[in-house]
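Sync notes, pocket subgroup
Present: LS, DG
LS reminded everyone that the earlier model was apo-only. Rerun requested with molybdenum atom included. Inputs:
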Amino acid sequence: MTEVKSAAMVVHEDDPYNAESPPTALAERVTPTELFYSRNHGPVPDLDPDDWRLEIGGRVARPLSLTLDQLQARFQVHRVTATLQCAGNHRAGLIAVRDIPGEAPWGDGAVGTATWTGARLSDVLTAAGAGDGPGLHVAFDAPDISPLADPPQPFGGSIPAERSRRGDVLLAWAMNDEPLPRLHGGPVRVVVPGYIGARSVKWVTGVTVQDQPSANYFQATAYRLVPPDADPAQPGAGISLGAFAVTSAITEPRAGDVVAAAPLTVRGYAVAGDGRQVARVDLSADGGRSWQQAALDTDPEPGVWRLWHAAVDLSGGGGSDVELVARAWDDTAAVQPDSAADLWNPKGYANNARPRTRVTVAASGAQPPSAAG
Ligand SMILES: Nc1nc2c(c(=O)[nH]1)N[C@H]1C(S)=C(S)[C@@H](COP(=O)(O)O)O[C@H]1N2
Ligand SMILES: [Mo]
């Protein structure tokens, strides 16, 4: 299985490999695989697809053990385009409020969209005769052992059984129509659109239907939204993270850029969580005092981000700084919160505050075109 580590990535850590996409990769509906972010909590396992097995057990009538061939042949094959977003996307904005020791300052590139091919988790659970009543959970096991967990243990997590039964949750073996790369969970990973990336367990080897959420460290202790005055090392503290909230980023221009005193096209992405879609994006070129609607460049699709752009006229602003701010709404009319300070939490998760990008408008800019957009 191919190893894809592009030199264009913004690398936070080499071992385990943790890298975010460069902003240019976030300007296309589907992210090129080699520029898709990668988040790993331990060494990336090297699983031989011929030896890989998926064990389905727990509250099921017929436990199953599936080879890759069986998973691919016995179930209907589905292709789902979905955006994955790490709970730590935009953590840098929280670190700017107050330091978060031990967690990497991910910017706005811990997100990406791919076309995933696989079997529906629901179909596999049905074949196993799994229960799906309220209160049940579907837990995922993987073989990569994380030294960050206390005690060190393999990565794992779970989703509510009801979520597992929607047709968009896949056991995926292909990404952008190529065999799933090792770095992204090959031979097979879970894909849960609209949930924090941690629930899309890579290298999945076990699926267990159970009465409780996974007891794995990354479900019971990490990836929880802990209040600032609570101890994040305490299992069960705070709120378990699943579906994420509407968020956006400005991918062009970048903070600190010097731009001409002229019309400027601002670009970005916006993504809504589980079952919701991005409905509107606004842009401000004066720090949030006045707003204009951005144009949405891609169609609303469940589980998929939308790209947007807006033209702002900076021809009068030569020699000064301008703060660009975006705000996105989803189709439940939820809007991004204004202040990252309100969202600060000890592990730096779930920062969906409005992105702010300060640029300098060049003093000796070009003459403003007369018919500016
Ligand atoms: N087995 C395993 N699955 C995992 C992880 C991991 O470290 N081990 N990281 C999770 C997290 S936090 C995220 S954001 C996504 C990242 O997927 P990617 O590396 O394909 O972008 O995988 C998730 N699945
Ligand atoms: Mo993540």
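DG: Residues 36-41, 84, 86, 142, 144, 155, 184-185, 197-198, 200-203 surround MTE (ligand 1) (CB under 6 Å).
LS: Confidence is low (pLDDT under 50) at residues 368-373.
Action: DG to write up.
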